Amino acid sequence: MKRIISVVGARPNFMKVAPLHRAFQKYSDRIRHLIVHTGQHYDEAMSKVFFEDLELPHPDFYLGVGSWTHAQQTAKIMVEFEKVLVEHKPDLVVVVGDVNSTVACSLVSVKMGIAVAHVEAGLRSFDRSMPEEINRLLTDSISDHLFVSEKSGLENLKREGVSEKKVFFVGNIMIDSLIHFREKAKLSNAAKNLGLQPNGFVLVTLHRPGNVDEKKDLETIFSIFKKIGDTATIVFPVHPRTRKMIQQYGLEMNGKVSKRVRLLDPLGYLEFLDLMQQSRLVLTDSGGIQEETTFLGIPCLTLRENTERPVTVEVGTNEICGLDENLIVRRSKEILNGNSNTGRIPELWDGHTAVRIAEILSAHLL
Ligand code: UD1
Predict the structure, then answer these.
(1) Best mutation site among 13, 62, 67 for ligand 1, i.e. most ligand atoms within 8 A of its Cβ?
(2) Is 277 left (phi over 0), alpha (psi -120 to 50) or beta?
(3) Which of 51, 61, 250, 310 is 20 to 30 A from residue 173's alpha carbon, by CA?
(4) What is the pLDDT of residues 72-106, one digit of tens each?
(5) Residue 262: beta bridge partners?
(6) Which residues are catalytic, by number?
């Protein structure tokens, strides 16, 4: 019996490991798939609800690391994860995405001679001020199997000198979850319960330090809300980091920004997917949401200077706007008036990515 350990830590990891866990069940007589949760995200709304929504089993190991500085968080994850590897000696470790848990666990594994598979490899924003870019570069440089979601990833890894033998273009695993849970998400009735009109509201998510840590940037964001709020209702489930900063700066909360801006607590996977499917426009600084809106054909304005997911701009619905208030307000109003492009679905974003990965890894291990 071979043993694979997959790592989850933060909110965007859960929807990437859920389809893999399902796909590995086909090999359950020969491969045991275990899940480690580092506890990087720990609030019920940032973690537990995702296990329920995505039908993930309880993690086999919970490291309970929590929020710290980057160095402390990464180091604590490494120390705790090493103990799991020493005791359980897996044949392979799977890491996903680009969060601190991803780089911490891949580093521990390779140093113990355990092979690492990185799902969502090769993405590059070329912006080293983003912690995620450092995590991506480091993880890819030490991984043994690199699973790529879009063609730009193949080019980036080739340019960095990664052997082609290690690299597999398999499509986007997050879209596996979206396709699998799309209908179930509708049954959550989240939009209806909030009194939102289908195709009649703007959905916002913002949590990047580059957007929410400085008071002047948050003020720009609230000013944008005020201007768009004249035209459409804005729904904004607020990440704990963003809420903390809004409170720290004493900025106006619910109701006061504008009657048409609704600040909510973070939502679960199904509720958020229901809202996204029914929204008319999405404003975000998330990586995954740029991809989900591209798949759904929903217009997306990305409040960042760059993206590590260029296919969402080249063939999808995504537009990169930085924090340019005039541009964001103008494009939002144009899109709300019907001037948007629908885009296309990128290659291999077809719901079968996890099956492809499980086939490749099982053939390698067995
Ligand atoms: C992390 C990831 C980021 C990802 C994001 C998704 C890194 C470097 N960043 O950023 O790539 O897009 O997750 O959400 O790994 N907090 C809570 N409860 C929680 C989690 C966080 O209150 O369950 C608060 C804490 O105040 C914490 C802050 O949010 O200090 C930031 O959390 P952290 O995990 O360090 O980074 P994120 O900003 O969530």
Answers:
(1) 67
(2) alpha
(3) 61
(4) 999 999 999 999 999 999 999 999 999 999 999 99
(5) 235
(6) 207
- DSSP 8-state secondary structure symbol assigned to residue 265: -
Beta bridge partners of 4: 33, 92
Amino acid at 239: H
pLDDT in tens, 128-183: 999 999 999 999 999 999 999 999 999 999 999 999 999 999 999 999 999 999 99
214 residue type, one letter: E
Atom 35 of ligand 1 has which residue's CA nearest to it? Answer: 67
Sketch the domain layout of the chain as residue ranges: 2-171+349-365, 182-336
How many angstroms is it from 251 CA to the middle of ligand 1? 21
Give the pTM. Answer: 0.97
Q: Ligand 1 mean position to 29 CA, how many Å?
A: 37
Q: Tell me the best of 70, 99, 100, 139 to mutate to test the pocket of ligand 1, counting ligand atoms within 8 Å of each CB and taking the most.
A: 99
Beta strands in the chain (DSSP E): 2-8, 31-37, 61-62, 92-96, 115-121, 145-148, 167-169, 201-205, 233-237, 261-264, 281-284, 300-302, 318-320
Q: Give the confidence band of 260 by pLDDT, cuts at 50, 70, 90.
A: confident
User: How many other C-beta atoms lie within 10 A of the C-beta of residue 348?
Assistant: 18
Distance (Å, rounded) from C-alpha 104 to C-alpha 95? 10
> Going by CATH, does the domain composed of 182-336 fall within 3.65.10.10?
no
First CA to last CA distance, the chain: 9
Separation of 25 CA from ligand 1 center, angstroms? 30
302-311: buried (b, 16+ CB within 10 Å) or exposed (e) per residue?
bbbeebbbbb
Domain 2-171+349-365, CATH homologous superfamily name and number: Glycogen Phosphorylase B; (3.40.50.2000)
Token representation of residue 74: 């990464």
Q: Do domains 2-171+349-365 and 182-336 have the same CATH topology?
A: yes
139 close to 160: Cβ distance less than 8 angstroms: no
Q: How far is the CA of 41 from the centre of ligand 1 (A)?
A: 6
Q: Compute CA 285 distance to the chain's CA centroid, rounded to the nearest angstrom.
A: 10
